[in-house]
Write a structure and sequence with these properties.
single chain, alpha/beta, 8-stranded parallel β-sheet, two-stranded antiparallel sheet, 12 strands, binds glyoxylic acid, binds magnesium ion
């Protein structure tokens, strides 16, 4: 008997978990806006046309004396902008901060029906997600919110990394998880002073090859955590994201960091500066040559079973599934 590939789920690109309907949207960049700055708010209608997600940031990078202004600014921009199919998210303050409760009460009360996702920072375990889940349920009920607001966790403490599997599966509201390399570096006592990206001293020196100068290879500081996060997300049916890249002047390094994350299974990254929007768009959209090759494989194996040779390379059921991920993503991006 021939089994069709009905058992296949393209988890890494955000297929719904079996128990709920999560909209499968392209979210290549989560674009951060500081909502207390009027000049930045004024740009939002235009930015919303260029990005997949607009996020009003209330947490780190917003000064303590501007927290209320940021919250009010977010509500104003949410009310006054037509986001169309672009996602509207907020990054709330940490649950143990003085601002978190009012962030949710005020925002869900005022614009709960426009808000797609709440990004929760400093998540340490599933208990943080359970708390926010219940709080959102209360506020949705009180304010007549008609669609569930989803939760996106930032993985940025050593405790959170230890508990990432449980965090990913903590609630049907879970949308995804982003790596937060800056806070995570501090939490782990890593000896860096950067927001994401590499470090020139994190390297391997190749063995001597006769008299030739010895090659040095810089390593990816974030490989382990991204891979661990991707496995947790894929097994829970949610999406993984790389977070911020703080050196806005270094486009090539940002692109390389985003690409590593994409190749490992991430769906997108944060854009903190307009130049990073195009980088994310380029990196997190599949390569046309790769898509063309993947289509050839799918066409050569219509039911996804068996083995064929294409362009000198062996393809089988497993590569069929890899190709399906690439072709599905290309369809989503084109839609
Ligand atoms: C993001 O919040 C980070 O800490 O990198
Ligand atoms: Mg952080």
């Amino acid at each position: 008997m021939k089994l069709p590939n009905q058992f296949y789920r393209p988890l890494a690109i955000g297929a719904p978990a079996p128990y709920r309907e999560l909209p499968v949207k392209v979210e290549r960049m989560i674009h951060f806006v500081p909502p207390h700055v009027e000049k930045m708010r004024a740009k939002v209608p235009d930015i919303a046309k260029q990005v997949d997600v607009v996020l009003g940031n209330l947490e780190d990078a917003i000064p303590a004396d501007a927290k209320e202004a940021a919250r009010a600014g977010f509500i104003e921009m949410a009310k006054s902008t037509d986001f169309g199919s672009t996602g509207l998210w907020t990054r709330m303050n940490a649950l143990n901060s003085p601002w978190a409760l009012d962030d949710m009460i005020d925002i869900v009360g005022a614009v709960g029906n426009k808000l797609d996702v709440v990004m929760l920072p400093k998540v340490e375990g599933p208990w943080d997600i359970a708390y926010l889940d219940q709080l959102l349920a209360q506020l949705e009920a009180r304010n007549g919110v008609t669609k569930p607001i989803l939760i996106h966790a930032i993985l940025e403490t050593a405790e959170g990394v230890k508990n990432v599997d449980a965090i990913a599966a903590a609630s049907p509201r879970m949308h995804g998880i982003s790596l937060g390399p800056a806070d995570l570096a501090a939490s782990r006592a890593m000896k860096t002073t950067r927001v994401g990206g590499g470090h020139p001293e994190y390297k391997v020196i190749a063995d001597p090859q006769g008299d030739a100068p010895r090659a040095t290879f810089q390593q990816d500081l974030w490989h382990y955590t991204i891979a661990k996060m991707v496995d947790a997300c894929a097994s829970a049916g949610i999406k993984a994201f790389y977070g911020p890249f703080g050196d806005f002047s270094d486009g090539p390094a940002c692109e390389a960091q985003f690409r590593n994350a994409f190749l490992l299974g991430c769906a997108g990254a944060w854009s903190l500066h307009p130049t990073q929007i195009d980088i994310a768009k380029r990196v997190f959209s599949p390569d046309p040559d790769e898509v063309a090759f993947a289509k050839k494989v799918l066409e050569a194996m219509p039911d996804g079973t068996g083995a064929v040779m294409i362009d000198g390379k062996m393809q089988d059921d497993a590569t069929w599934k890899q190709c399906k991920v690439v072709v599905d993503l290309a369809k989503q991006v084109a839609a």
